[in-house]
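Section 5.1 Outputs to date
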Amino acid sequence: MKDLREWISACEKEVELKRIKAQVDWNLELSHIAKLNEERKGPALLFENVKDYTIPVLTSALISEKRLAITLGLEPGISMCEMARWWMKVITEKGLIKPKEVPSGPVTEQVVEEDAIDLLRDFPVPYIYLKDGGRYIGTAVFLITKDLETGWVNLGTYRMMVHDRNHTGVQIIKGKHADMHLKQYEKAGKLMPAAAVIGCDPILFLCSSTLVPAQVSEYDVAGVLRGEPIEVFEGELTGLPLPAHAEIILEGFIDPKDLREEGPFGEYTGYYSGKRGEEWPKQVLHVKRIYMRKDPIFWVTTVGKPVTDTHMIPVPEPDRHPLDTELETMRVPGIRSVFIPPQTTGRLWAIISLKTMYPGHSIRAAMAAHATTTGHYGMKGVIVVDEDIKADDLDRVWWALSVRYDPYRSTEIIKRVRSTPLDPALPIDARDISSKIIMDVTIPYEWKRKPEEIFLDEEMAKRVRERWGELGLD
């Protein structure tokens, strides 16, 4: 699979995508259809008749486990934890695969120079939520930037609101990899080359939306997951490696000194990020050139309350490899499975299933999780359960919280840790520092006498299952 079109075809074969032929307004209507569809766990939607535009719009792409499996080239029916394990195995056993440079690609079929650019005239940029500060061209998008000193190429997902015909805001949060690059260019007194990609092989968007470690390129991670190098060509203006099979690429520069008010926006937390003027001013991408296919597809995600594409994305691969791989790298034994529920916005809570081997083992695993690349940013809590419960079995996790967890004995609070400026649980003007919690839901290893759990007689249960249809219970 090289591009979004192959992915759409694969989804159609599995009856996981619906084409909407009736005319739909880009102003609130499109996003609200998509959101209601997502709440019903519906198919991906391809709007083929958007008012005022000829370009179709894809939404609700990655909201189901089945479509994530299609994206990863796995058999539909595989669970989130199984996807995470597969991801870990592929990366650890095969290593990373660097991109392959090609002269050009389908995305260079049309090239629009700066004087002819008009973002809102030419693209069906939706107005998503009623109190948004504008129309967001970048939701299912990634920004390509490059380390000025080492040449490391980063793909990162940042929201992008259109300011005018060829300027779009970019919310680069402090400490993110693009922010590290930006500081280098600011110190050097230079403009930062940057390119925004809208519509691509979904695995690139998947990788761009995760917390891959510094000095590791998402292109390399995507390459090994695909089993072949991602094809890129060199942008003429920026020199950046651009995905040859993308739908739309906005190429240009970010001036570290050009900061503009932007927002608010209905964020992945399910809350607006603040009122106009309350947020910090954002960087701006000066769009100097657009590459696009002759008949491009515009990809949008509604963001907002879970579950949408942005909440599902970090689940199968929360970091360079899954969180359990990071814990394995930290030599934490006994990890059976790890899950970050999409209902927690796909990043704020983690569940670890652990085979405890010594006193304090569960607390060690939770502290290690909070210290990982995945856990140190924004993650509020880690729940550790015994190995008899799979991390993604939320019914059993709730049961364990009820019968294996003592709030006084089993809770640890960690103070003064890094937060996210998008956390609505914190005051708008004090979101840099927060706290974290550990909930140890394991039966203490050191207990000499452990509670005895009830189990069914397996032979009798088997007989009953065999008579299920006969009993009229199918």
